[in-house]
């Protein structure tokens, strides 16, 4: 009797099992080279199923040596195109052709392969794929009630994060280092359990990395060459809450139930953002709202009434398109990080879907600023009207986001009125920040500065005055604010006539643009007669150590400042540590300044003088 096993039954380990049970005793096992080639490719890609299959081939070799069966390797290896199109059935066809040529019995655990083979008149033995419904994973023995995450790596003593939300400690939990055999056994059990159990699934299976969701555990298995050694990281929620456990519960319930909202839940890693998002999801579901989630990977611990979606075809944009056909009342988006995520969040919100987004941020205002440059400024309050900041598992701050046309706080002239986004404290209603366009730049101005003598508006005004004056002055410039709409500018003696301009025309233009009365004086007129190192208002100019040194590119139409690490962020551009201008970095990771503008001229002069240009987070 000759049998031809296909890839599925070799990976599953069923052939050696059947031989041990006496089913194929004395048979000739004809192993197609197509199977060997596919398993080798999978193993080279770091896929565990490839290694499982090669282990089964070794068992067959041992059975051959023991005289239980005869093992032959025949046929041809699949070429690169056939390997690439394995999912289209190319390798399965090679295996069927070999079984037909040898008049052998095809053995498979693939139901499609068995049906096609029978249709072609082949003799087939179909072995139902079996896995074990794991009641408990071995790695669960490392967890106690205070353990949030487990960290296992070959050659390293097992560690865990234990404690309460906001008070976690990364600690060694066993003196003996983990070895490769131990972690391979754990990894095999995790993946087999996820495949077999209705409570588990493999979220991501890429060369070198598998992400498994098994019951409440999210488990990442990293293998070389992606990682330097086999590593297993398992994370689970240690707390499940409902909205009543949080401050402002009644107010937030009323706000969320009033109408579909745009909410950002922000906080540091491990602060309890996802735990709060789960509580919000359960409340909305219990309040007769249709709730879905968008997650990659899916790890929110929500009830079965809430369907959890992941990236469709690797794209959250496709997931969003599908959800818009389903029309949920609310969608929980965990996590919103990249520009594409913010754009998807905005599109769904503007389509009328209530959106709850989970965002990493170290301050509540930072979550909102991440939208700046990614969506139109005036649309932000329509996309996000509430920001909730979580710290140590508690709600530390809630912001209400509104927009109105007004003169920004601290400015006086009526003709400076413009659309202003106001961020108010949810509890007191007191405005804490304003976001608006000032002199063609988007600025975020804090309205409360604590013990600082210089308000946020004063700082922005001083910087803009410095930028304007430096664009027409060669020497040192300092600015001293003397109220909300008046400033004194100190310049070198040789610059004063150029700054003032013929008949005062140049300084008048600057005053009209900024809405601030400017008195230009020389440093000789200043008490002490010396220029200081500060930029005015008692504030030292930021040093280049705070940012990244860059080399601007000057083209025929633009001066381009590279800022790849700050995509979508608002930054300051400095020359030798002195402020030049503020800008929002484009999606392409750069700032483009049109040549001929005052900003471009100042930047070009700084480059020509050999000054060090740097990009500093604003």
Automatic annotation (TrEMBL):
<dbReference type="InterPro" id="IPR002716">
    <property type="entry name" value="PIN_dom"/>
</dbReference>
<dbReference type="GO" id="GO:0003723">
    <property type="term" value="F:RNA binding"/>
</dbReference>
<feature type="region of interest" description="Disordered">
    <location>
        <begin position="523"/>
        <end position="549"/>
    </location>
</feature>
<dbReference type="InterPro" id="IPR027417">
    <property type="entry name" value="P-loop_NTPase"/>
</dbReference>
<dbReference type="InterPro" id="IPR009019">
    <property type="entry name" value="KH_sf_prok-type"/>
</dbReference>
<dbReference type="InterPro" id="IPR029060">
    <property type="entry name" value="PIN-like_dom_sf"/>
</dbReference>
<comment type="similarity">
    <text>In the N-terminal section; belongs to the PINc/VapC protein family.</text>
</comment>
<dbReference type="InterPro" id="IPR052041">
    <property type="entry name" value="Nucleic_acid_metab_PIN/TRAM"/>
</dbReference>
<keyword id="KW-0694">RNA-binding</keyword>
<feature type="compositionally biased region" description="Gly residues">
    <location>
        <begin position="529"/>
        <end position="539"/>
    </location>
</feature>
<dbReference type="InterPro" id="IPR003593">
    <property type="entry name" value="AAA+_ATPase"/>
</dbReference>
<dbReference type="Pfam" id="PF01850">
    <property type="entry name" value="PIN"/>
</dbReference>
<protein>
    <submittedName>
        <fullName>ATPase</fullName>
    </submittedName>
</protein>
<feature type="domain" description="AAA+ ATPase">
    <location>
        <begin position="259"/>
        <end position="384"/>
    </location>
</feature>
<feature type="domain" description="PIN">
    <location>
        <begin position="1"/>
        <end position="115"/>
    </location>
</feature>
<dbReference type="InterPro" id="IPR001482">
    <property type="entry name" value="T2SS/T4SS_dom"/>
</dbReference>
<dbReference type="Pfam" id="PF00437">
    <property type="entry name" value="T2SSE"/>
</dbReference>
